[in-house]
Amino acid sequence: MKTASITFLKSAFVFLVISLGSFLFGTASATCTQANLTGTWYAMGVSGDTYWDEMTETDRCKVVISSTGAVTSGSSCNIRDQRGLYTLRIASGTMHVTTACAVSGSLRLCGNSACTVSAIFTIQYGQMTRDKESFPLLGYKSADPDVVFIYEAVKQ
User: Fewer CB near the terminus (10 Å): N or C of the chain?
Assistant: First the structure.
């Protein structure tokens, strides 16, 4: 009986060490830096007004992020809704990633060429994957939080 208990304890200890090692290795490999976010990302998903129960837009955005987290020129969104297909320029914004791979930031989209009509969209939740090649994100329009977006971003 005593030998069986010792064998069980040894097996349990080995299992615990292997499990803990796998957990620590997995956690270590998930560490992110701003460099992981730098580059060109394509985000696709849906957006709409949750107050009116209308998720009527499909969106595809190209977001170019500098090493400092600034959203740079060449960033835009193609929007399809009941009015048709149109493009909105992303005039400015910032995006950052924590060491735990949480993505945050905001984007200012222009409704016209002079950007006198614009809206700021805030990323509420984002989580970069372990391979650092994609991240799902959820956000809202800052002036009207009922307007939300749900995207998946993929690095080019």
Answer: N
Beta bridge partners of 107: 93, 121
44-77 confidence digits (pLDDT tens): 999 999 999 999 999 999 999 999 999 999 999 9
CB-based contact 122:137 (threshold 8 Å): no
Cα(87)–Cα(114) distance, rounded to whole angstroms? 14
CA dist 59 and 45 (Å) reads 5
Token output for 87: 């493009």
Q: How far apart are CA 137 and CA 121, in angstroms?
A: 12
Q: Are 150 and 45 in contact (CB under 8 A)?
A: yes
Distance CA 111, CA 143 (A): 15
Strand extents, DSSP E, 8-53? 39-49
